[in-house]
Amino acid sequence: MGTGAPLPLTPHEMQTVRSAIKSEFHNLADSFQLTSWPTEQYNCIAWAAEDQGRWWWPDIDGESFWPQGIERNETILDFITAFRTLGYETCESHDLEIGYEKVAIFAIGDRVKHMGRQLSSGAWTSKLGPWWDVGHDSVDEIEAPHYGRRVQILKRTSLNISIIPSGT
């Protein structure tokens, strides 16, 4: 699970960080992994978009990156529209589908609070604000009072499909 090898922390450091995360995200299974160091370079929306170089958010002042021409509102519809610029469309199932990449939108009411991305293994990855990236088995493990609940799944044709030549 996760996007790479677990981080090289001492057992004490690992326990301290994991306890802090679990105190905020009570639904995270004990099997969750830390997969990056904290950074303010990118946030969960950028992580879902696979962009580790920018902070994505529809702030009114335009200080954060947001796709050009998309309304700068925190609504579910505007996030769906933003991710359509990356080839995503709405879908019903969070289950792994070979040949597709999926992201999940979490909201409180109509206000988006978080996005996560499904890995090719079927597990999920989330960036916790300026905090850590974590790998988690189930999309819904990241639901929390401050992140809301999963409200929409989006999918696109995988950009990482390996074509295997047929024997002729």
Structure description:
It is a single chain. With 168 residues, this protein is α+β, with helices and mostly antiparallel strands. The protein has one domain (11-157). The chain is built from three helices and seven strands; from the N terminus they run αβααββββββ. It has a seven-stranded antiparallel beta sheet with strand order 1-6-5-4-3-7-2. β4 and β5 (124-127) form a beta hairpin. The model has no long low-confidence stretch (mean pLDDT 92).
Rg (CA only) = 16 Å
Shape: globular
Tally of discrete structural domains: 1
Helix content: 10-25%
Give the H and E element order: HEHHEEEEEE
The mean pLDDT is 92
Rounded to the nearest angstrom, the distance between the terminal CA atoms is: 37 Å
The DSSP helix count reads 3
The helix-and-strand class reads alpha+beta
Q: Biggest β-sheet, characterized? A: 7 strands, antiparallel
Uncertain parts: none
What is the topology, as strand order, of the major beta sheet? Answer: 1-6-5-4-3-7-2
**What proportion of the residues form beta strands (DSSP E)?**
15-25%
Strand tally = 7
Brief summary:
The chain is of the alpha+beta class and 168 residues long. It is built from three helices and seven strands; from the N terminus they run H-E-H-H-E-E-E-E-E-E.
Keywords:
seven-stranded antiparallel sheet; alpha+beta; 168 residues
SSE order and pairing:
Layout: H1 11-24, E1 33-34, H2 44-48, H3 76-84, E2 89-91, E3 100-108, E4 111-118, E5 124-127, E6 133-136, E7 149-157
Antiparallel strand pairs: 1-6, 2-7, 3-4, 3-7, 4-5, 5-6
